[in-house]
Amino acid sequence: MRVQLLDGGEAELSLREVFTRAREIRRLAGDISTQDFALLRLLLAILHDALDGPQDMDDWAELWEADDPFGAVPGYLEEHRGRFDLLDPVVPFFQTGGLRTPKDDVFSLNRIVADVPNGSPFFTMRSPGVGRISLGEAARWVVHAQAYDTSGIKTGVVGDSRAKAGKAYPQGVAWAGNLGGVVAEGETLCTTLLLNLMATESRPATSGKDDRPVWRRVPSAPGTGADLPSRPDGVRDLYTWQSRRLLLSADADGAYGVVLTYGDPLAPQNMQPHEPMSRWRRSQAQEKKLRQPLVYMPREHDPARAAWRGLAALIAPRDQGASGRSDPPPGLRPGIVDWLARLIVERALPKGPLIRVRTYGAVYGTQQSVIDEITEDSVTMDVVLLNDRDRRLGQTAVDAVAVAESAVGVLGHLAADLAEAAGSTPDPRKDAALDRGFGALDHPYRVWLTGIRDSDDPRELRAVWQRTVRREIGAIGGELVSAAGEAAWVGRVIEHGKGQSWLDAASADLRFRSALKKHLPLAYERSATYEGDSAAAEAAPETVPAAAPDPQKVPS
After folding, report:
1. Which of 267, 287, 379, 483 is most deeply packed, by most CB within 10 A?
2. Is the peptide bond before 229 cis (omega within 30 degrees of 0)?
3. Which ranges in the chain are annotated with CATH 1.10.132.100?
4. What confidence tens digit (pLDDT) does each residue in 514-549 have?
5. Could you name the CATH architecture of 392-553?
6. What share of the chain is helix, strand, coil (3-state, %, to 5)?
7. Which of these ranges, 51-55, 211-215, 313-317, has the smallest mean pLDDT?
8. In the prediction, which pLDDT does 316 show?
């Protein structure tokens, strides 16, 4: 595994070294971000199985306070050493021994190396493709393929009854590809592993089942396992789920080819009791399709939205958007966040240290046969924001996102009005203004969020944030008005649902400032003048003619 050390350097370490040096490691630093998510789940499966737990909160607290919480892992890895051999002829790690096509074909490693666009090898350092890679890198990509492999038509293999005419037809992306991945990240890999090491009693859906990782199960064969209807048996099973059947072709100098096809399917509907590392959304379309009263689906991450803008779905201080108290919530926060909230309520976590919630995701295109984008982001906050017994601060953080959304929306309307006043198409300018507005608030929000502490007054926090938004968005609004041009200041008659009206830069600016004041009431409680408060007043000297234009001389 590739890791980033606390001193900023990087290293490639074995599984044993990762656990023994976990306090020296800042975080995993794989070839791509989704690889880190897949490998972290592998480490957690090892840890859960080596410890056979933790069973409850007391067990977890002992690990948190222990000098060597992972002391059992080296012996465990030695016990199962054979199943971690990447090139074992019978049970190769995370692969299917003896896997072959009817013609004994071996294919390019492009099929599992996800940073090479399949069929379009542009904008990559590996052009025109992957010829040979080290065994260490090959192991990382094998784990990643089991988590994030694409869908589409794959190679049919001998022994798979699903194959027809040498082809395996689409069965969906590998399991983690369905998720909007979420993990809790500490200051070191040691604390990260412990924060995500959920106690068995906190997972009632799988508590007491025969939960084992893949290396303690019967080796996989082509096709699907006979016991799939009753699985997953728990997180050890789920974190090592074999979504694919694959086999590397390799020698002592590295891997040079692969055979890849479908493995064990796993439907995403209502998997929230089993999968703790994803957000969830209610899907009425799935409810209708499956004829079930309630269906939740994983909520994927939107690459166009920063993680802080989805804070409500991460910490969910209260149900957002439900029409009544008896209605099921439209979304569910990740199980790992519920676990963190419990650690806070039961005071298992000390006050003070910040927690980083990191998000991972893959966006698939063309019938899920290619990966279009890979997303990674993080939000750093005090653990107090996750406290279920006192949700005021958490709700304040969520409300601040809504305030930002509203203010940026007002900015977008200003840009559209200025475009219409000048006779231009409004949508491009509106979209550009929205992007600029969210970009301007990104850093200030993260700074404001990390500064929240247990003793803070929610109202004062809201006032500070609204003043920040007023300053940032008001300044951008001023710049937009200043750059509107003479045509916008002259204005024109526009058609709308209530008839006709005259629109020019001055009226657009007045509408902008009025709307901003409506959405940011706390920012206007003080008498101080803020930059951007009156955009037109500052813009007019440079852009407005000395005398207002005569409407009768305006060209029709």
Report:
1. 379
2. no
3. 392-553
4. 999 999 999 998 644 444 454 444 444 343 433 334
5. Orthogonal Bundle (1.10)
6. 45, 15, 40
7. 313-317
8. 64
